[in-house]
TrEMBL record:
Gene Ontology process terms (BP): FAD biosynthetic process; riboflavin biosynthetic process
Record NCBIfam families: cyt_tran_rel
Key words, A-Z: ATP-binding, FAD, Flavoprotein, FMN, Kinase, Nucleotide-binding, Nucleotidyltransferase, Transferase
Name by which UniProt lists this protein: FAD synthase
GO molecular function: ATP binding; FMN adenylyltransferase activity; kinase activity
Gene3D superfamilies cross-referenced by the UniProt entry: HUPs
Domain FAD synthetase, chain residue ranges per copy: 17-81
E.C. no: 2.7.7.2
Length: 90
């Protein structure tokens, strides 16, 4: 598993030039719905001969359009989050 951190403004070169399928969303847990999304992306990447990447957000998207603190929407610690994804064979 390779972790790339993207920050605004984006650099011209992210260092990831390979053909890639991206599963994108706010993965606030690792329930069956998220597992299904990741499996679908993994299958699509295999079918296309591409790498699989997961793009997620550090904070819930509601922070952009609602007045709530990041603490209210943090469900997993970063360590727990990364560990769960590493065990999912993504």
């Amino acid at each position: 598993m390779k972790i790339l951190r993207l920050h605004y403004p984006l650099a011209a070169d992210t260092g990831y030039p390979e053909k890639t399928v991206i599963a994108m969303g706010f993965f606030d847990g690792f329930h069956k719905g998220h597992q299904a999304v990741l499996q679908r992306a993994k299958d699509e990447a295999a079918q296309r001969g591409a790498k699989l990447a997961v793009l997620t957000y550090d904070h819930h998207p509601a922070l952009v359009y609602k007045k709530m603190t990041s603490h209210e929407k943090r469900y997993l610690t970063l360590l727990d989050y990364n560990w769960r994804y590493s065990k999912s064979s993504v």
